[in-house]
Design a protein that fits this description.
Layout: E1 3-8, H1 17-29, E2 34-37, H2 55-71, E3 74-79, H3 89-105, E4 110-114, H4 124-141, E5 148-152, H5 169-177, E6 184-186, E7 196-197, H6 198-205, E8 212-216, E9 236-237, E10 245-248, H7 254-265, H8 270-276, H9 303-319, H10 323-348, H11 357-368, H12 373-379
Parallel strand pairs: 1-2, 1-10, 2-3, 3-4, 4-5, 6-8, 7-9, 8-10
Helix pairs in contact: 1-2, 1-7, 3-4, 4-5, 9-10, 10-11
Length: about 375
């Protein structure tokens, strides 16, 4: 059976340990298999990867590992060591060995090395450097029994290869130098892939034979922080024949992510899942705004439809009170603001479809208080052409 799990690999949010514990419970409830701990906002994971974890965080990691072991969830602790190719290289590699040793000492057994989103040429030299890093980590964890290692390359989707996968110098070097038993994390054709099928994984395996774990950004919203997606998990046709596993990298909102794990499991319909998490039925009217990243958005050309939607949004924002509502509150208010702006924009136009100078100034003032400067400039771009 295809392994399934949760990837904490997003930007912008840092889960607390209570939230992570909740997600372990959800994984266990759904009979899923793994958790990858690699939060970009954990400075000791990425920015200060060379520095050992402080005692208090180390204790939290230890307790998290103990709970995941009890639940039978394989937890990969990830580091993102951007080891220099030349300067301070030996010192940095020694620091990496010490960091891995520290994690081994508290009972961590499964590790992930992330080379994603590194600002570097994706060439032979980078691949050779990363291959050596993986070799050192692999040798370090071999001192303990039942350890494992996975990795995310810098070229982690087809579009990053800048051409044919089989012609990628970077991937070919990894194929030659990284042991085939170490699974590789892969997001598909794009960072956020519209679809992922066996054929896409077969294309990767033509150049690199390592087992593939799909890192699926379908529900991610760190690239669109004013929105989130809660609809069905779809356009994925992945089998055990081509992939070792699939993990979703969602939002960093623990209750929301528990809902998304339920969607990912495919065992219930959206309405049933929302009811399970006590989401008011009124949210179903707003669901088309939050379905999926590639779904067609609702047509809001009718002012009466806009007013109805604003009313539904405000009702949820004001009357629904729960921990989940707190996770969604900002998005609901933002939708209400956007709809109000659309309504005002339509109302200010005269019969010729034009807006008077006076009304335009009022609209600009209203928008300037509610939107970021870049977005405001895009909306009123004609003003910037002067």
């Amino acid at each position: 059976m295809l392994k399934k799990g949760y990837i904490e690999g997003f930007y912008g949010r840092l889960l607390d340990w209570q939230g992570r514990s909740m997600l372990l419970d959800t994984l266990s409830e759904l009979s899923m298999d793994f958790y990858i701990y690699g939060p970009k906002e954990d400075r000791f994971h990425r920015k200060d990867w060379q520095i050992l974890y402080p005692k208090e965080i180390l204790e939290d990691l230890k307790n998290f590992q103990i709970k995941s072991d009890k639940l039978g969830i394989k937890t990969f602790i990830a580091l993102s060591p951007n080891v220099s190719i030349k300067k301070n290289r030996k010192k940095e590699l020694k620091s990496l060995e010490k960091k891995i040793g520290q994690l081994l000492s508290i009972g961590c057994k499964d590790f992930a090395i992330f080379f994603d989103d590194i600002d570097s040429l994706r060439d032979k030299e980078l691949a050779q450097n990363q291959s050596e890093v993986l070799r050192i980590v692999s040798e370090t964890i071999e001192s303990k029994k039942n350890t494992s290692l996975i990795f995310c390359p810098t070229v982690y989707c087809e579009s990053f290869a800048k051409g044919s996968l089989v012609e990628s110098e970077y991937l070919n070097v990894l194929s030659d130098e990284v042991p085939e038993e170490i699974p590789i994390l892969w997001t598909g054709k794009e960072v956020v892939s519209k679809s992922i099928e066996d054929k896409h994984i077969v294309s990767l395996n033509k150049v690199i034979k390592n087992p593939v774990i799909i890192w699926d950004n379908y529900y991610a919203n760190d690239y669109c922080p004013n929105n989130f997606f809660i609809g069905p998990y779809k356009n994925r046709n992945i089998s055990k024949k081509s992939a070792y596993g699939v993990g979703i990298n969602p939002t960093g909102m623990p209750i929301t992510d528990s809902i998304l794990l339920n969607q990912f499991s495919g065992t219930a319909k959206t309405e049933e899942i929302l009811e399970k998490f006590n989401v008011p039925k009124g949210f179903n009217d707003l669901l088309p705004f939050f379905n999926g990243p590639f779904d067609k958005k609702p047509n809001m050309g009718n002012p009466s439809k806009i007013k109805e939607t604003i009313k539904a949004t405000m009702k949820l924002s004001e009357e629904w009170k729960s921990p989940l509502q707190l996770e969604w509150a900002t998005f609901l208010w933002k939708l209400s603001i956007d709809l109000n702006f659309l309504l005002k924009f339509k109302a200010k136009k005269n019969k010729q479809g034009k807006t008077s100078i006076q009304d335009k100034k009022k609209l600009e003032q209203w928008a300037s208080q509610r939107y970021s400067t870049p977005l405001f400039n895009i909306i009123f771009e004609e003003k910037n052409k002067k």
